[in-house]
Amino acid sequence: MSSPGAADLTGSVITPAQTPPTADTNLQVLSRSDGRVVYHLGILNPAPPADGSAALAENLGPYTIGPFNVPAHWWCARWTDRTNCPITIKKSPAQIVSAKRMFPYAPIGVPLDAQPSRVPYTLMGSSSVVIYEPTTGERPDIGLITDNSAFYMLGDDPSPMIDWALVGETCPLHFRDQTTGLPINLLTYPTANSFDAPGYQGSPWLAKGPPNPNQGGYSTFGGNWTPQQAHHPEYDYMAFEATGDLGFLESLQFHANFMVLTNATLSGQQGKATITGEYRGISWGLRTLFMAHIATADAESLGPLPSYLLPSSYFKTLLDQQLAYYGAAITSTGWQQTFHLVSPQTPFAPWQCDYMLSALGFGVLTGHSDWAPLYLWALNNAIDRLSGTSGYPPGWGGAYYLDATQNSWAAAFAALQTNNQGSTAPTAAQVAALTADPFNGGVAMQGQQYLMTTRSIMVHAQYLDSQGILPVRTTFTNLDACFAAADKMIKNYGSVDPRESTVSNPALVSTVIVPYVPEPPEGTITMPSSSLIVGTTHTATFTANGPLYGTPAWTITPSTAATLTPAAPSASTPDVATCGVAFLAAGAFTLSCVGQADPTVGVNPITASLAGTVILQEATSATLTLV
Length: 627
What we know:
This protein is α+β, with helices and mostly antiparallel strands. The protein is built from 16 helices and 18 strands. The chain has helices at 93-98, 147-153, 159-170, 237-243, 246-261, 265-270, 279-300, 312-326, 334-338, 350-365, 372-386, 409-415, 428-436, 448-466, 472-475, 479-493, and strands spanning 12-13, 27-31, 37-41, 63-65, 68-70, 77-81, 176-177, 182-183, 211-212, 218-219, 523-526, 537-544, 553-557, 562-567, 576-583, 587-596, 605-614, 623-625.
């Protein structure tokens, strides 16, 4: 294990008594002024060296610290003791919209899926998050915000949003410089990167985790995680805006850094930290930088920023560097100008262009007016797909890819018939129908799912205009007609994802503050139902829906029925506790157990019971009842 001197560490080091079997100087306890205690695994070398070397990465666990049973802990991940810092929803969706921190959300007149059953966060768990982020296909976590955050904005339960924000800490991308106590500074180290191995993209190289012998010895993330820029969700931003919780802001800053340092190719070429990636990856990178900047500015407006947080000026400088590079697209030539692509990539995916417009529109909404010219220029891409006059028929729907080298919208659509770039190819009959009516009567022929985001970005544009933030209608006099085209196709499709259920009227947004409620703890007791005979001993198993703290309290009624021998949960199975039951007398009994789902005794108790009958000579059945 790498062991820097005490002077190099910010926060105290775990002592031998806290983490068996030995102390680990890479695992640090960071006490925060708001009452949180953060357990962070991972260091850089005392000063990231020019040779690109990095600290020896490791994963830990299981281990126990006080009442906390930690099943696993991977490099550059963290978990937080919030005993003295409970999470509270402080703002309604309407308040967030009024502050220009998110676009308005409300039902749009088509069926909206009901909020799914909650998968609560558990210590170092991942809830229902897709931890292999390169997973493709329709996912509820990909967009300007996640579906969980959108349900909160729609006035529903905020708890799943909070669960995913807590998972954001578990995600192993928290590259922290222990010499400053801050996320690594990409202005100081512009070519810092977490590429698979050192020596490819500049320095310092940041290990994702231990080398994986099954993957050529490359450094890999722990816990089966694979964070990826192109599919990276919004984990923490909406939770921070709703709660003001500095833990969510702290994690958001690490996520914003990751979106840049995950690939340092352009950073090396430019000599400045610059986002490199797929079109969608650039989009989500900009989104996360905008979010980190404005959220940090919001925290600064309330008083001095804690020393463990980077200032908003840091993220503004990173954004300025991105604008200097990507803003040059406005004066580009050839097919990049024809299709108004912020990054010259071909074939290009129209739906990824919508992702870019979601990010840029959000940036303008949150006060980044210097990005307005690029946003308006890039908006031409969506306008041309909806106008019916560019050569691209809106009624075709959302194409997966188009060939930008065709150099016109009409040619790009025509090319789908012979070189469809992986997209669905239109038939001759469909082409004839679209020639007669480019809108196809307001019914998209295919790619309807993609049009949800297309409609949403049109709403964003209308909202920016109607709120006096940006005169979009002055530039695009056909804006409302283009919105109507997208809206009609979605209405005819009959469905919209929560994260795309945006409206331009802020009066429709929920004004209710729905409280965050920790998942109601649940547990069950099981025990073999055979041979419940006087003189026999059985093992009762208590299983909870989350980690247990301490040894549960077992009782049996009547007390003369059996002798009980409780055992504490193990570090490897923190949600399971057992008890030996030695039966002493015949008759009916009730075995009960009270566990703790919170380190503070009496908070979130879990109670379960089992009833049965003991006989002298032969077995009878036991029945389970929960209370």
